[in-house]
Design a protein that fits this description.
This protein is mostly beta strands. Helix content is about 10%, strand content about 45%. The chain has 7 helices and 34 strands. The strands form 5 sheets. The chain has a 21-stranded antiparallel sheet that branches. Strands 17, 18, 19, 20, 23, 24 and 27 form a 7-stranded mixed sheet that branches. Strand 28 and strand 29 form a beta hairpin. The longest helix has 19 residues. It is globular and about 90 Å long. The relative contact order is 0.07.
Length: about 600
């Protein structure tokens, strides 16, 4: 179960017997923060109109609207309320060409001031703990200088006093002192209690406030505009395809997710490219060769050229044995989040990395526990120096070979193997640095320690960025698919895949986000009975356990075994098929993302109408 607002405080010398020890606040559960408003829905509308301008040219105008309530997990967990997107599309298509244009606008809900809108659960929990504390009479709690005391400050102060008193009284029994201190702080200096009017009032203020550090409101108002065109030239010499595309991002979050502000307006970023492919069949159509190239231009990363060559050779009178091979070089630009994010998650601040880069000191630890003890001498830092230039394009060279064949009239098999080598591999890195990119001094580091709970106003923080790994990263994989058709009543299929990240010696604090199980396989059966009126399919899936890395959390996804099934019965006179089925029929543990819930059983029934 996720807990929010359970921040910790590492006491210094003034903490007495607590010096060097870290105490954590009681946190809030997801149910506490959502307060029962956990409805989930999904609404989609997609009308379109197509017109034949000539016998061979069609024009289409379409619109899509989607809105939903859900809980979403990325760098944090977010409660999405009435959020979604509008998308408009215009397209003109001919026999061998097309021109298309799209625009997508997202929104975060809550346009009615009486509704919650979307909000960051992590921010909500943290800001609740830093609200001014109220005493039993409902009056603000003040310190000796007359300044308001937050719930977190009051809790830690009460805990420390109780711990030191109990520690001295019981002869130095730390465990007993901790139990006494926790009980005393929970009773005499409780944090805001879910279900109380004070909690409800504070929650409502925070989820409607979009100012980072003060509120948790999530604002989504980005616009994506894109266009593409393609033309196919077919001749006896060769087949040629040429095309191009343009994409423009106008990113807007009012500072709730990205480094934009309402005053500065949306962040604009673009990319465009053109491509061509030539293919030719030889040897009485038994050999097909293809070569392709693409040139892309990125606003933040310059120009890149991506080539690809492939060959397919078919044997047999009916070309039932097909051998394939390909080589390609491709580039990947960092996501828009990686380029422009600015999200303070408490333990670290996530920052975009398309500028001059950063300098600092490696934490040597993972995202779950970043931070080192404040060093007292510059020499202590020499071995920990870290420097990252701004992001560059990730480049991958890949080779693939495979075979697909019809071994008998009832048996087919497909085999494949790939190998990839990445340069400038994009990964996430944690380090201690200044937000302006400079390397902090010993004094700055000492002032910011302990880094895990640094004050957001300080320039020196644990910073998390996307950066290029200074080593070649290699991966490989293989797969096999087999199917045997006994007849219309029964076909048995199975497939197995193996995926391996060969490179494992990443520098400390680096996350690869490979997030792929090494082994997984499926076994399935399907068929039609009773003159094909009754159809069925069932599938068993196994997924190996694997380490899942994300900016939200890192941990092990357990292995999963899932059974899905569906049955359909056709009523031809009514042009109708009755369908019933279910996924994860035995309600087994089935995690897809670390930190999220298991996907349970879903059963469904429906009618499929086929009117010609």
């Amino acid at each position: 179960m996720s807990v929010y607002g359970d921040a910790g405080n590492t006491f210094g010398a003034t903490g007495g017997a607590l010096a060097g020890k870290t105490v954590f606040l009681p946190g809030f559960s997801e149910a506490d923060l959502i307060t029962g408003k956990n409805e989930t829905y999904s609404l989609k509308v997609a009308p379109s109109v197509s017109v034949l301008l000539t016998d061979h040219i069609k024009a289409t105008a379409s619109y899509r609207y989607a809105a939903s309530n859900t809980t979403f997990q990325a760098a944090s967990r977010y409660r999405i309320v009435d959020a979604g997107a509008h998308q408009g599309k215009l397209a003109i298509e001919g026999r061998n060409w097309f021109v298309r244009a799209f625009q997508t606008r997202d929104f975060s809900g809550g346009r009615d001031p009486l509704t919650d809108g979307s909000y960051n659960l992590g921010f909500l929990g943290g800001v609740l703990q830093n609200q001014p504390a109220l005493n039993a009479a409902g009056q603000p709690v003040l310190d000796a200088t007359g300044n308001p005391v937050t719930y977190a400050q009051r809790y830690f102060g009460t805990y420390a006093a109780a711990y030191n008193a109990a520690f001295a009284a019981n002869g130095g029994n730390a465990d007993a002192a901790a139990l006494t201190a926790r009980t005393t702080a929970n009773t005499a200096a409780p944090v805001l209690q879910p279900g109380t009017p004070e909690f409800a009032a504070a929650r409502d203020r925070i989820i409607h406030n979009p100012i980072p550090g003060q509120g948790a409101r999530l604002i989504l108002r980005s616009v994506l505009t894109e266009g593409s065109a393609q033309y196919n030239f077919n001749s006896e010499v060769a087949d040629v395809v040429v095309g191009g595309s343009y994409r423009q991002y106008d990113l807007g979050s009012d500072g709730s997710l990205l480094e934009d502000t309402r005053e500065s307006g949306r962040i604009r970023n673009y990319e465009y490219g053109a491509y061509a492919q030539v293919s030719k069949t030889l040897l009485d159509d038994h050999l097909k060769l293809a070569a392709a190239g693409r040139v892309d231009r990125f606003q933040n990363f310059g120009t890149a050229f991506s080539p690809r060559v492939s060959a397919v050779y078919s044997l047999g009178a009916e070309k039932q044995h097909n051998f394939r091979g390909s080589y390609s070089r491709a580039f990947r630009a960092a996501s828009q989040d990686a380029q422009y994010i600015r999200l303070d998650v408490g333990r670290a601040i996530l920052v975009g990395n398309v500028g001059a880069g950063f300098q600092g000191y490696t934490t040597g630890l993972t995202t779950q526990l970043p931070g080192i003890l404040a060093p007292t001498r510059t020499a202590d830092l020499a071995a920990l120096e870290y420097k990252s230039p701004g992001l560059k394009l990730e480049k991958v060279n890949s080779g693939e070979v495979g075979y697909r064949g019809q071994l008998t009239s009832k048996l087919f098999v497909d085999l494949d193997y790939f190998y990839s080598a990445y340069d400038n591999f994009i990964a996430t890195r944690n380090f201690i640095g200044n937000l302006d990119g400079s390397r902090p001094t010993v004094a700055q580091i000492g002032a910011a320690a302990p880094f895990r709970f640094a004050n957001a106003a300080l320039p020196t923080r644990v910073i998390q960025i996307n950066t290029n790994v200074d080593q070649t990263v290699k991966s490989q994989g293989a797969g096999i698919s087999v199917g045997y058709a006994f007849g219309p009543a029964l076909t048995v299929t199975g497939n197995y895949s193996y995926n391996e990240l060969i490179t494992t010696d990443f520098q400390p604090g680096t996350l690869s986000f490979f997030n792929t199980p090494q082994n997984k396989f499926n076994l399935g059966v399907d068929g039609q009975l009773f003159d094909r009126k009754l159809s069925y399919n069932a599938n068993y899936r196994y997924v190996d356990s694997y380490v899942f890395e994300s900016t939200f959390a890192t941990g092990t996804i357990p292995s999963a075994q899932v059974v899905d099934a569906q049955f359909g019965y056709a009523v031809p006179k009514l042009h109708t098929t009755v369908q019933v089925g279910g996924t994860n029929l035995f309600d087994s543990t089935n995690f897809q993302v670390y930190g999220a819930g298991s996907q349970g059983r879903i059963v469904y029934a429906g009618l499929l109408f086929d009117i010609k």
